[in-house]
């Protein structure tokens, strides 16, 4: 990056871009110093924060961007942040999601072990059920919460009947032991789902 003209005393970001070909990204980033690595359908981009707006302008892209960090730091945290953000971008239809846009997520701990413990405590039974039965209880609850608990809007987004969604919410409550009509349970479930997504788990 230094050889490409990026001052070593500036901050860098890591982006994960999904859904666009190599040449489209290269054209968009032609004037910016960056490193690019492709893994499957994802492109990992390392460079200055200006990469974000440039990538967001690429038609059809879904991209997630880490928080800025000093050059030379480990990329482990940045990779986790960018991976979480790109998943959120793909699900929400946004071109770019910077990590930290989720106001709830900022209150979660950084420690993966603590995040995993929260997910297991709140969602463990339901995730195991989804895995064993190929069901979508956690995804249904997440979509319902993202649509501000509007049953019809969430059901439309999931392409299911509202009665089917109502059943899934009841089943989630039975397995998790949490009444989603309770404000305390609502907050706990939302934090656990945010933690699962930060860890890159399917929800």
Word description of this protein:
With 203 residues, the chain is of the alpha+beta class. The chain folds into 2 domains: 90 residues, Reverse transcriptase/Diguanylate cyclase domain (Alpha-Beta Plaits, 2-Layer Sandwich); 93 residues, Arc Repressor Mutant, subunit A (Orthogonal Bundle). Helix content is 50%, strand content 14%. It contains 8 helices and 6 strands, in the order βαββαββαβααααα. Strands 1, 2, 3, 4, 5 and 6 form a 6-stranded mixed beta sheet that branches. β2 and β3 form a beta hairpin. The relative contact order is 0.12. The model has no long low-confidence stretch (mean pLDDT 88).
Q: Any key phrases for this structure?
A:
203 residues, alpha+beta, Alpha-Beta Plaits, Arc Repressor Mutant, subunit A, 2 domains, 8 helices, 14% strand, elongated
């Amino acid at each position: 990056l230094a050889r490409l003209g990026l001052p070593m005393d500036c901050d860098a970001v890591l982006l994960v871009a999904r859904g666009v070909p190599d040449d489209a990204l290269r054209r968009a980033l032609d004037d910016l110093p960056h490193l690019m690595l492709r893994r499957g359908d994802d492109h990992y981009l390392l460079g200055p924060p200006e990469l974000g707006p440039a990538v967001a302008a690429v038609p059809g892209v879904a991209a997630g961007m880490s928080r800025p960090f000093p050059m030379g730091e480990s990329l482990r945290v940045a990779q986790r942040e960018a991976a979480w953000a790109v998943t959120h971008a793909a699900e929400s239809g946004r071109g770019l999601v910077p990590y930290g846009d989720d106001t709830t997520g900022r209150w979660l701990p950084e420690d993966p072990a603590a995040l995993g413990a929260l997910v297991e405590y709140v969602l463990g039974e339901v995730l195991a059920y989804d895995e064993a039965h190929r069901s979508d209880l956690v995804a249904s609850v997440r979509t319902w919460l993202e649509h501000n608990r509007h049953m019809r809007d969430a059901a439309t987004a999931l392409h299911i009947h509202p009665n089917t969604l109502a059943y899934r919410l009841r089943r989630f409550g039975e397995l998790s032991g949490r009444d989603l009509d309770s404000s305390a349970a609502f907050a706990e479930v939302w934090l656990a789902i945010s933690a699962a997504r930060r860890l890159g788990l399917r929800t």
